[in-house]
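User: Fold this, then the next.

Assistant: Folding the first:
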Amino acid sequence: MKILLLEDDYNYRQSIKEYLEDIGYEVDEASDGLEACNKIKDNTYHLLILDIKVPEISGHEVMKYAKRLNLQTPIMIMTSLIDIDDMAIGYDLGCNEYLKKPFNLAELKFRVNELMRKYYARDDKNLITIASVFNYNTVNKTITNGDKTINLSSRELDLLNYLLYKKGSFVTINELISELWDEEINSADIRMHVMKIRQKTADNFILSKRGLGYKLNV
């Protein structure tokens, strides 16, 4: 599993990177917020570990950027800033875990392993298999295929969750429009969202039948 580590202190960053690699993780590193954003844009990660006070743009801005990309990747904040206002900002932005500096590497291992177990455990009762090879976690709203995470937009996730709610039955386009978006979009928009989900997953991820609509292949 792949982790992005944002930390501007070189020695501190290398120490954490080497430790995480020793316990089996692949680690990509960034020394400033802008570099982290570029790597998030170009790569898929299972966890983001972000320092807050870094050059270029802050860790909080990196979190905002990740959320604008509709990423569901869990985020751990690693910082010496622990007053209640800073913590509130982090959690409001979608932080899943706080780790106060300085910390013991054994604590880092525990917290990273726990996040990975919570979000990616194969025996999770909230994990649903779709089209034989894709696993959808209904808690964190992520789709994985092996070690690859598939990122969907908010409307694509809305569509997926409604089809999951109606699993076993075909759902008409009119029902999707009225139940999900209250006629804010039209049938062409629905078809576009289905097409994009299939492009990101597989052609048989969502099944369709003329006159009946769409059904999730679970």
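Now the next one, as you asked:
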Amino acid sequence: MAARVEKFVRNVIVPYEKDARRDSHGAPTEELVMEMRHKAREAGVMTPHIRPDGHHLTQRETALVLINSGLSPIGPVACNTAAPDEGNMYLMGHVASPALKMRFLEPIASGEARSAFFMTEPASENGAGSDPSMMKTTCRRDGDDWVINGRKAFITGAIGAKVGIVMAAAEEGACMFLVDLPNPAIRLDELPHTIDNAMPGGHGTFTIDNLRVPAEQMLGEAGEGFKYAQVRLSPARLSHCMRWLGACKRAHEIATDYACQREAFGKLLVDHEGVGFMLAENLIDLKQAELMIDWCAAVLDSGSLATVESSMTKVAVSEALMRIADRCVQVMGGTGVTQNTVVEQVFREIRAFRIYDGPTEVHKWSLAKKIKRDWKAM
């Protein structure tokens, strides 16, 4: 399957990188997304990390597939392995009831619908971000419904999505709800331009105004929202690492081709130590990132939530991939900062990835707290 995905992305999706069908933020339009997904179905690589019987591949198997889907920044969108859908499918697969899976999960898994995860809140209002316990969005029981009020920010893919997972705080604790989108009670306030644009639907800010959700659409149990968030976020951090490793492998290939053909000062660029050594360092970082991903995937496959391992991997891989992307731009000089190749976009996307699902500093802080706890327990 990984080989099929690689062939599909390289031969079918890479040419779409120059397709002009983009929204005002540079992301693929719904028309383009659905056209690519039609071709993915024909090639047998739609949602390739989920087997026909509905079972998810192991995390180590998933890594092989998702790395290859990431060989193009729009490959994950085409193959339905992109965030936030991939993480939302994983969460629903583990927590949702059979009825909710049929109604909300199946359209996403088939590639017919996109989804959004409404957790993060505006920093200007001191809402939940890297610290979800600061959640300001509330939910209260009203008869057979729950009523939700609050604001959410940086909600990836919400524009054009058909399914939403909304997280809110109740007296019992955090809760999650599945909702149909669009919904008049969820109003777009702002759709900012961001440094990345591979994922359709942007990263919008929304006001949730008296959103009524039937009680049967609660995801799991009341008060268990933070636990479910960990079920989703640990594998999701790792999935980000997988996809963007694929993108950096491709950027390295492009930079290598450039360095092995471009001449300066009487010899090929690759023969200058300053350039050749950067490519050598890329190989080292690529291999280390691959090994970290495989290690964390194995821990997840053992049944652990792997919160510590996923934090370590998120830090190590995101920082390594940033170095790789930066070197690729540098090796290619002026060409590297143009849109003539995908290297420039990979650089921008990786910069944003260092913030997705917890910035590097938050994960280091979490790891430092564990070090202190372990020391006290000695």
